Amino acid sequence: MRVYRFLNEEYALKSIRERQLKISNILELNDPFEFQAVDISDKKFRFAIKSTIEEAAKEIGIICFSSKWSNPVLWSHYADNHRGIFLGFDIPKCSLKEMIYSSKKNKILPEKIVKVNFFNTSIVVDLFDQITRTKYDHWKYESEFRTFNSLYEKTS
Fold first, then answer.
1. HEC states along the chain?
2. What is the reported pTM?
3. Which is the most buried residue in 54, 65, 98, 139, by most CB within 10 A?
């Protein structure tokens, strides 16, 4: 699948020269409501989610892409006010997580939650997937896809 990454000129050229993209810290994304797409009215549940995300952020990073390159709002927000560059990548769709856009917070079904080890961090898979893939529907213009990446190089 062809996806696009919008960057200012300096970082786009650096990415091309170094043949790599910056992996963003999942706690430093531009949406202040990131990872809040589930009902967290229960105080214990809210603390558990916050703790899970903070633990995951120690080992998991994110790269965000768009399936569209021609949206002027994307150019404005992510490509240095239309002065930047977009880079196109062909990535297998199975390696990408497509964002879900919703106008309401989702309820989590406890019986669907399963713990696994993800990049050496024990997290709740369904919950993590739902939280990291759902954004408020006003962000729909981004047509966003994400990859989640280890922050550490794997050694043999």
1. CEEEEEECHHHHHHHHHHCCCCCEECCCCCCCCCCCCECCCCHHHHHHHHHHHHHHCCCEEEEEEECCCCCHHHHHHHCCCCCCEEEEEECCHHHCEECEEECCCECCCHHHCCEEEECCEEEEHHHHHHHHHEEEHHHHHHCEEEEEEECCCCCC
2. 0.83
3. 65
